[in-house]
Amino acid sequence: MDKRIYYFDNNATSRVAEEVAAAMEPFFHGLYANPSSMHFFGGSLQVYLDTARQQVADLIGAKPEEIIFTSCGTESDSTAIYSALRSQPEKKHFITTQVEHPAVLSLSKSLEKQGYRVTLLPVDTEGRINLEDLKNAITSDTALVSMMWANNETGVVFPVEEAARIAHSRGVLFHTDAVQAAGKVPINLAESKIDMLSISGHKLHAPKGIGVLYVRKGIPFKPFLIGGHQEEGRRAGTENVPYIVGLGKAAELAKKHLDIENVKVRALRDRLEAGLAAAIPNTKINGKGAERLPNTLSICFEYIEGESILLMLSEKGICASSGSACTSGSLEPSHVLRAMKVPQTYAHGSIRLSLSIYNTEEEVEYVIKEFPAIVERLRAISPFADGKPLFGAEPQHKD
Ligand code: PLP
What we know:
The protein is α/β, with parallel strands linked by helices. It is built from 15 helices and 15 strands. The strands form four sheets. Strands 2-8-7-6-5-3-4 form a seven-stranded mixed β-sheet, with helices on both faces. Strand 13 (about 325) and strand 14 (about 330-335) form a beta hairpin. It starts with 5 loop residues before the first strand and ends in an 18-residue tail after the last helix. Residues about 390-399 have low confidence and may be disordered. The structure holds pyridoxal-5'-phosphate. Pyridoxal-5'-phosphate (PLP) binds near residues 103 and 177.
């Protein structure tokens, strides 16, 4: 590609690390056998699967036999939730939060149609969960609590360890979608009550199409994909050896890079946040008062639309995301910003910039330099900037 890419969309997907691509390469041409085959060639692949399982286990403080390879984070989430419900058929209540990824939220809507009662825990204006709400929601009918470790839009981190202790003390299984957290914050399942945890490879510099479900040893489990005996009968389907090997390598690198993530990436994100907030009036940092992932910045610009900002950023080579969802032809702020009650005049102008260890200071300075003129241009042509209603809503002012 001719155009220089300034990539700030790592929560959407991340670039495959060179070391990961190199580790995968031999499994496409030379080592292509099916690991379940009886011959020596198939058998010779087992050791690579074992190594990858150990590498993933090491990233999250688990035992290798607690790691099941899946095709993606969405499959891991579905497997965990259906497993908990099917292994306790007498229980018909499921608890999750209003701000989950659609992998959990859309599934919970489908569960309601299947006759389950679903409780969606609210968040406050900083995107934080109140654990008293969780305590009050659990009943003797509750089969599972599923609470994301970190939010994909705002980066807000939930107290999942404490939430898992609460669920356990009431005899309820606990799952966490750690798709955005794995590799960005330390995870040690050996010292936690978390029963199941989802990971997606493409968020941590492995390819798209590979995921992990951690299942604590000894908990009841029912497979989602039924068929062959792969993964100890817990996930049917021929093992995707190159991608599993790649994810193993990515997990090893992520563990090694956790300090960089927390020092260098956090410093870059903080510089970006401070630089934009100083240069542009009427901004709002979503979740600023909460604990957040080191790499994520969700920022709103009053009176303009996120999509217009994205297009203009894109012209400058800057890749980011907006916090809007296109529903029935109208641009609605995302369910996360709505749950946080972000004022209407801000919520439509939301942008997510998400970094990785590959971002540089120079790239951050470039974004800080280009951004103010874009916002200024859009505000100059905004019909709402004089306080007129935005998308039919009454203008609300900064809280
Ligand atoms: N959960 C969270 C929090 C996510 O951010 C994502 C992807 O954006 C997913 C689940 C789904 O992961 P995958 O794309 O691997 O299915």
